[in-house]
Amino acid sequence: QKEVEQDPGPLSVPEGAIVSLNCTYSNSAFQYFMWYRQYSRKGPELLMYTYSSGNKEDGRFTAQVDKSSKYISLFIRDSQPSDSATYLCAMVESWGKLQFGAGTQVVVTP
Amino acid sequence: DAGVIQSPRHEVTEMGQEVTLRCKPISGHDYLFWYRQTMMRGLELLIYFNNNVPIDDSGMPEDRFSAKMPNASFSTLKIQPSEPRDSAVYFCASRRGSGSLDTQYFGPGTRLTVL
């Protein structure tokens, strides 16, 4: 079993809809949680991070962590075609090593 | 800032040939990471350096893979001999600082195809 599980999608939504992405993990040692966005033929870029249970907002993006369930989510409100990308969750171990999920491909149609 | 620079962007080679991938990290960054991304296995850490010294190479799949960082502005990942299963996108990333939340900045990747 992988330490980080993420549905690869693709997830197709109409413009303006809410995109809901999630990951589950098995390693309790993970202390921090990140979301990366990867456009086609590009490297991943950090979108946001969180380190405690609860919600964190950044504009149209909300990251949610439930450590008791080992479950993290990313919500994108008012989705735009420019949000079409692959979203990777990443779990951070103590020294900063990233353990990535498989990535979920999101397609926002106009 | 030019960001992390990787070359070549695309490489097509035949099985058995030597392949060298190159990376120039962001100036001032003291950590450098090499990753491999495939559909089957996702994004995997191969090796990372701190101040040009290899710290953890446990992700390097086989002895056919080797990485060097001769100075703070250059690193190479070499595959010799290459095999079709090495086909993947290889990313280099760099980071300043050792904090768990210090951001890793990824390069554009090298798409390797081994025929």
List the helices and strands and how they pair.
The complex is a heterodimer of chains A (110) and B (115).
Chain A: E1 4-6, E2 11-14, E3 19-25, E4 32-38, E5 45-50, E6 54-58, E7 61-66, E8 71-76, E9 85-92, E10 98-100, E11 104-109
Parallel strand pairs in A: 2-11
Antiparallel strand pairs in A: 1-3, 3-8, 4-5, 4-9, 6-7, 7-8, 9-10, 9-11
Chain B: E1 5-7, E2 10-13, E3 19-24, E4 31-38, E5 42-50, E6 53-56, E7 65-71, E8 74-79, E9 88-95, E10 105-106, E11 110-114
Parallel strand pairs in B: 2-11
Antiparallel strand pairs in B: 1-3, 3-8, 4-5, 4-9, 5-6, 7-8, 9-10, 9-11
Key terms for this structure?
heterodimer; A: about 110 residues; mainly beta; six-stranded mixed beta sheet; five-stranded antiparallel beta sheet; 11 strands; about 55% strand; B: about 120 residues; four-stranded antiparallel beta sheet
In short:
Chain A contains no helices and eleven strands. Chain A has strands at residues 4-6, 11-14, 19-25, 32-38, 45-50, 54-58, 61-66, 71-76, 85-92, 98-100, 104-109.
Describe this structure in words.
The complex is a heterodimer of chains A (110) and B (115). With 110 residues, chain A is mostly beta strands. In chain A, 0% of the residues lie in helices and 55% in strands. Chain A is built from no helices and 11 strands. Chain A has strands at residues 4-6, 11-14, 19-25, 32-38, 45-50, 54-58, 61-66, 71-76, 85-92, 98-100, 104-109. In chain A, the strands form 2 sheets. In chain A, strands 2, 4, 5, 9, 10 and 11 form a 6-stranded mixed sheet that branches. Chain A has a 5-stranded antiparallel sheet with strand order 1-3-8-7-6, with no helix packed on it. In chain A, strand 4 (32-38) and strand 5 (45-50) form a beta hairpin. In chain B, 0% of the residues lie in helices and 54% in strands. Chain B has no helices and 11 strands. Chain B is globular and about 40 Å long. Chain B starts with a strand and ends with a strand.
